[in-house]
Amino acid sequence: MRLIAWNCNMAFHKKYKQLLALGPDIAIISECAAPELLGQRAPEFAPTSSIWIGGNRHKGLGVFTFGAFQGELSPIYEDDFRSSRQ
Fold first, then answer.
1. Alpha-carbon distance 66 to 37, whole Å?
2. How does pLDDT run across 18-64, given as a tens digit for each residue?
3. What Rg, from alpha-carbon coordinates, does the chain have?
4. Which residue ranges make up each domain of the chain?
5. Is the backbone of residue 54 left (phi > 0), alpha (psi -120 to 50) or beta?
6. Looking at the whole model, is its pTM more than 0.85?
7. In the sheet where 26-32 sits, what is the strand order?
């Protein structure tokens, strides 16, 4: 299993090819746009599953899986417990 964590410092839609070149099974991307925006800006980026949290749709935390892997938001996730300031 190849797990990659990367703070892409925004504009992930311009940088996702570098991620895919590493062949991740699971990628945790800080400061990335929401999947709806990524789909508009980089339609070729097609993970198996996407989980995204954040208060700003341009800068949140994305978890993307590839291949046989699937991700899901934990049932104990609390949106009230923020990971950063609003």
1. 19
2. 999 999 999 999 999 999 999 999 999 999 999 999 989 999 999 99
3. 12
4. 3-65
5. left
6. yes
7. 3-7, 26-32, 60-65, 49-53
